[in-house]
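>> received
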Amino acid sequence: MLTAVVIDPSAWPTADEMSNSAVDAVIRSQDWTGIALLVGLDAEPPDGDALMAARGLPPRLFAIPQVSKARVPALRRAIVEARGRAMRATSDHSPGAEALPLLRGVVASKK
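>> returned
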């Protein structure tokens, strides 16, 4: 099961360090295994990689653009990366263990 927290960019990151600390704590928590989606309200989405680097966050923050055409690949990337983390974290490889479902039609983007 995939869990995600959706963050409004007007609420994080802001000048209010108390709010910033609360969201940072969720993203950093080892108890939180989901992803964090930062929804872009402007034409240009926030730079999730730069925010993670600046705030020292683990790689589970994904910026989601406002433009719907660009939103699908961003969500796909977030889901595929979350699935990969789940597969790497799974320690039960016994013969009777249920396999994770395959994602059909997902092709790695070429950069």
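>> The chain has one domain: 4-89.
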